[in-house]
Amino acid sequence: xxxxxxxxxxxxxxxxxxxxxxxxxxxxxxxxxxxxxxxxxxxxxxxxxxxxxxxxxxxxxxxxxxxxxxxxxxxxxxxxxxxxxxxxxxxxxxxxxxxxxxxxxxxxxxxxxxxxxxxxxxxxxxxxxxxxxxxxxxxxxxxxxxxxxxxxxxxxxxxxxxxxxxxxxxxxxxxxxxxxxxxxxxxxxxxxxxxxxxxxxxxxxxxxxxxxxxxxxxxxxxxxxxxxxxxxxxxxxxxxxxxxxxxxxxxxxxxxxxxxxxxxxxxxxxxxxxxxxxxxxxxxxxxxxxxxxxxxxxxxxxxxxxxxxxxxxxxxxxxxxxxxxxxxxxxxxxxxxxxxxxxxxxxxxxxxxxxxxxxxxxxxxxxxxxxxxxxxxxxxxxxxxxxxxxxxxxxxxxxxxxxxxxxxxxxxxxxxxxxxxxxxxx
Length: 426
Fold this sequence. Notes:
Elements: E1 9-17, E2 20-25, E3 33-36, E4 41-44, E5 50-53, E6 59-61, E7 69-72, E8 76-78, E9 92-94, E10 96-103, E11 112-117, E12 121-122, E13 125-132, E14 138-147, E15 152-160, E16 164-171, E17 177-182, E18 190-196, E19 201-209, E20 216-224, E21 231-232, E22 238-248, E23 263-265, E24 269-272, E25 283-292, E26 300-306, E27 314-320, E28 326-332, E29 335-341, E30 350-358, E31 361-366, E32 369-375, E33 385-388, E34 403-411, H1 417-424
Antiparallel strand pairs: 1-2, 1-34, 2-3, 3-24, 4-5, 6-7, 7-34, 8-23, 9-13, 10-11, 11-22, 12-21, 13-20, 14-19, 14-22, 15-16, 15-20, 16-17, 18-19, 24-33, 25-30, 25-34, 26-27, 26-33, 27-28, 28-29, 30-31, 31-32
């Protein structure tokens, strides 16, 4: 018998339909979660291909795994136009030509373009310089790349005005990479990552924070011949590109295709109200098996239990903090009602979290370890709602973070210390 069999509510990447994520426990529909996202969005399916999901349908995602997760993301906009049309005039070519629709793309369509070097002894790139940016904000650029005759690429995000840039130089044989700064970046947020996709494709990600003098962005992909950025091309060699995306935020989210204008994907909002009978009122345990996109640029809430229709009146909630710790807090009648935070810090990784409460006592466990203990100031009133990735009905975009939910469970009793350790051990 699994410990989860004792739970009153269990949510997993299970059956879905528009506006619905079905609960495993209970199975009568009373625990089914309501899903709202008033735009289409993309996910990685079980074949490793990117595909579009209809509005308000939960995204069961298989990124980097044969086991699915529920993908939950904040609202984001792709400011890079013609995202899979590098032959379009929007993309400026320097000593390169584009052969459109050359091979199969990460979504399985025949829409990826080949970037081919010309017979010139110089750099060979495709870029755009027309995207305006806001000062003191994080931006992330990413695109999908596959080797051709050339197996190395430089992808850069550069800000005019501040004249700062960040390059990621990638070996397309194995995804290994190095980075290179332009300007003084010691005080600016930088992020570089390469994610492997099927059929030799890599998602290359470079992120950077604007300064108080940044005005616009240049997004560039340059062919490299081994270690050389500038070299004599042969007129036939190159590599493949698809799916360019520039978004405001400190990390990359799922692909948002664009054509002639920027496109916005709405946030995933998952919740269930009116279930006080499934939530322990004076004692209980909350369990989350989740991957958070740590570290965060701002404190963000990723799960809450609420009563009375407002988080500020009556709530428990989990935050991921800017110091890479996990916190659990309570608010009652607009006043802090107690909080604890993990002793350990965490990077981008899978976390199994259990929080048990009994009377005024709190204990938190993460990945098999006891991380924190403390107490509430006052007992909460009736708790009747669950909100995933938001602080109750407060849905401001700044509080949203990218999460992969493997499972969520609520117990109406406080599990023992050993049960919490067993439940959270990876």
